[in-house]
Design brief:
The complex is a heterodimer of chains A (327) and B (345). Chain A has a domain of 84 residues. Helix content of chain A is 35%, strand content 23%. Chain A is built from 13 helices and twelve strands. In chain A, helix 8 links the parallel strand 7 and strand 8. Chain B is α/β, with parallel strands linked by helices. In chain B, helix 3 packs across helix 4, helix 3 packs parallel to helix 5 and helix 4 packs across helix 5. Chain B is globular and about 65 Å long. Classes of the chains: A alpha/beta (327), B alpha/beta (345). At the A-B interface, helix 8, helix 9, helix 10 and helix 11 of A face helix 5, helix 6, helix 7 and helix 9 of B.
Chain lengths: 327, 345
């Protein structure tokens, strides 16, 4: 540790993370050997379709994998300190204090029986050594910061009295309560209308800039990633298939899956007769193909793809897990 | 009528109000007033044969209610709905008039009977139709197989149950079922919103191909502007139960007139990474139970003035775009108070 801290240690480092679910018919591997890093103040987008394992990756980082799911292998390091093997009590202190979380559905993240002010004060006093008055003052300033109008009046309101966008702001205030260094945001805008989504994206970006908070932004929406992220990791069937700066991944994707994904998004600018189509569907966990998991759907697959699994390798200005790029 | 072809579907000042009042006793004891939710409040448009009309708007703007009004799941509170020149909404109108329209729903998990095999699901409209119309029996199995192949499924998939399919395949089953009765008009209510983006592309491509092959007319409802841009010939933008702007797709996206349309287009994340400055979007959709006076958009509109707060604007042709049929409901546009639209996105 002493030696490692001399070099710039990334805020979050995930190494060879594997999340598995033991079942009667064998062990299902939902996240298979993922490695990624996030620097302080950086927004890493994690994008993929349903079942790609992106939410489980986020849950594994904050230790919220529900049994029987478990972390089968790999390490999660927060500022060089390993957190995946901490006892539950210690992990609880990390969660909330150092890593905040924002989930898709703000209504299920909030307790409907308590006022939002009480929930926020409770979170603040759990993690920070503040008396009641100071905690209330901090809560009010957080509400103001996330853009809730008239925080004094809204403080004693219940979650159901807020609209969807305002509830998500409350959840973001909760995540920020202890001034964490990292926020895991899992589909934070998916349940929201497009104009409200734009407000929440702008809010996340501003908070990130002002506090130097790093964000792991998990979403299926490439548009949200394009607006917000610095780097993006594209996931497919439990693995990262491409990772790189967001502009490069969007404009010069290297992996055939990323290319297909980008082509399948309808554009507001260009008109086309047909969208690029990736035939087939993501494999189920019970039947992940050997070799490159994408090869049955890949128009450029050759025999090596069926036998050997590619690791991430440099490709243009990104890294892609594809045998085509190493040729 | 005989000169220009009549539209296939026409709505004239259609409204649907829901009574959401508290129970009578509460109204009497707690002196609560009656509450009326105007989900759709005076919508008029026409869809030509073979055309795709897109309807966009945020949640609660009434776009799904319009779909349900057209297919007859709701009866309009006022207004008229015509299909192929005949009125179909009136009491006692022949339900057979709707035989040529079908609906595709958002959630392919909820709209297919989980206990039925796919072949039975697709065959049901055929069987029902024969009971109604008494047409000669085309062998149902052959027709079902042809329908499944038409939507990109295998003939053998007919023996499976809905849970054995992925979301995209289920939506294909919904489409096959909708096509079973040879409809001319499909009402599609967010048909791809529950799907992943690559699967969405498959379904959108399929819908386009079917439209070409079968000459279908679509009403395509979505909250996703990019999807509507891709599939629709003409787009209507709804806000709080009214259409605020309607124009041919290229025109609407290149020169949005209504401040709400501009705001929506500005809010869509910019995938092209042009780094264009984005205007901050203010406020939220007000409650339809208590809509603002005048133009319902005025509390969020940067250009609102006294007239907007009092007088409801009507849809009027856009100056210089009358010929293409662009209409907008905005006092500021009519008075020329608005800056020119920031050319497209």
């Amino acid at each position: 540790m002493g030696a490692a801290s001399v070099i710039a240690v990334p805020l979050l480092a995930v190494e060879g993370l594997r999340v598995e679910f033991p079942t009667r018919h064998g062990t299902l591997v939902a996240v298979d050997g993922i490695s990624l890093t996030i620097a302080s103040g950086e927004v890493l987008g994690v994008v993929g379709e349903s079942g790609a394992g992106k939410s489980l990756t986020g849950a594994a980082v904050i230790g919220l994998i529900d049994p029987p799911g478990r972390i089968g292998a790999g390490k999660v390091l927060l500022a060089g300190r390993r957190i995946d093997n901490l006892p539950p009590e210690a992990l609880r202190r990390v969660r909330g204090r150092e890593i905040g979380a924002v989930f898709q559905d703000p209504l299920t993240s909030l307790n409907p029986l308590y006022t939002v002010g009480r929930q926020l004060v409770e979170t603040i006093t759990t993690h920070l050594d503040l008396d009641a008055a100071a905690a209330r003052a901090r809560a009010l300033s957080l509400f103001a910061e996330v853009g809730i109008p008239a925080p004094e009046r809204r403080f004693d309101h219940y979650p159901h009295q807020f609209s969807g966008g305002m509830r998500q702001r409350v959840v973001i205030a909760l995540a920020l309560a202890a001034n964490p260094r990292l926020i895991i945001a899992d589909e934070p805008t998916t349940a929201l209308d497009v104009s409200i989504q734009a407000q929440i994206i702008a809010l996340l970006k501003r908070l990130c800039r002002d506090h130097g908070t790093a964000v792991m932004l998990i979403t299926h929406d490439m548009g949200v990633i394009a607006e917000t992220a610095d780097r993006v990791a594209v996931m497919y069937a439990g693995r990262i298939v491409e990772v790189g700066p967001v502009a490069d991944v969007i404009h010069r994707p290297q992996h055939p899956y990323t290319r297909g994904l980008m082509g399948s998004i309808p554009s507001l600018v260009a008109s086309c007769e047909e969208l690029t189509q990736i035939d087939g569907a993501m494999p189920r966990l019970t039947a992940i193909p050997a070799g490159c998991a994408f090869h049955p759907r890949c128009p450029q697959a050759f025999d090596r793809c069926q036998r050997e699994r590619p690791e991430l390798m440099p490709a243009g200005s990104t890294q892609a897990a594809c045998w085509l790029v190493c040729a | 009528m005989s000169v220009s072809t009549p539209p296939l579907v026409e709505l004239v000042d259609v409204a649907r109000h829901f009574d959401v009042s508290p129970p009578w006793l509460n109204r009497v004891l707690e002196r609560q007033p009656r509450a009326l939710l105007k989900a759709v409040d005076g919508v008029s448009f026409a869809i030509a044969r073979g055309e795709t009309l897109g309807l966009v708007g945020e949640s609660g703007c009434g776009k799904s209610t319009v779909a349900r009004l057209i297919v007859g799941l709701y009866r309009p509170t006022r207004g008229e709905i015509h299909y192929a020149g005949r009125r179909i909404d009136a009491q006692g109108a022949d339900p057979g008039e709707r035989r040529n329209m079908q609906m595709i729903f958002q959630d392919p998990y909820a709209s297919l009977n989980p206990r039925w095999r796919v072949a039975d699901i697709v065959a049901e409209p055929l069987r029902a139709r024969r009971a109604v119309a008494g047409t000669a029996a085309t062998p149902i199995d052959a027709r079902v197989a042809a329908l499944l192949e038409q939507v990109g499924l295998a003939r053998a998939d007919g023996t499976k149950f809905p849970h054995q399919f992925s979301g995209g395949q289920r939506q294909r089953v919904s489409i096959a079922r909708a096509l079973a009765g040879n409809p001319a008009f499909l009402v599609c209510d967010e048909p791809t919103s529950a799907l992943d983006v690559s699967v969405q592309a498959q379904v959108l491509n399929l819908m386009r191909r079917l439209q070409r092959e079968l000459g279908l007319t679509y009403l395509f409802i979505s909250h996703n502007l990019a999807v509507v841009h891709h599939i629709a010939d003409r787009v209507g933008v709804m806000y709080l139960g009214r259409i605020v702007e309607m124009a041919p797709t290229p025109r609407l996206f290149a020169q949005p007139q209504h401040p709400y349309t501009r705001m929506l287009l500005d809010a869509v994340p910019d995938l092209a990474l042009t780094g264009k400055p984005r205007t901050a979007v203010a406020g939220e959709v007000p409650s339809p139970l208590d809509p603002p006076s005048g133009c319902t958009f005025h509390p969020r509109c940067p250009y609102a003035n006294e007239r907007c707060r009092q007088e409801l604007p009507l849809l009027r042709p856009v100056m210089g775009a009358e010929s293409v049929g662009a209409v907008v409901a905005c006092h500021a546009v009519a008075e020329g108070r608005l800056p020119l639209p920031s050319a497209g996105v």
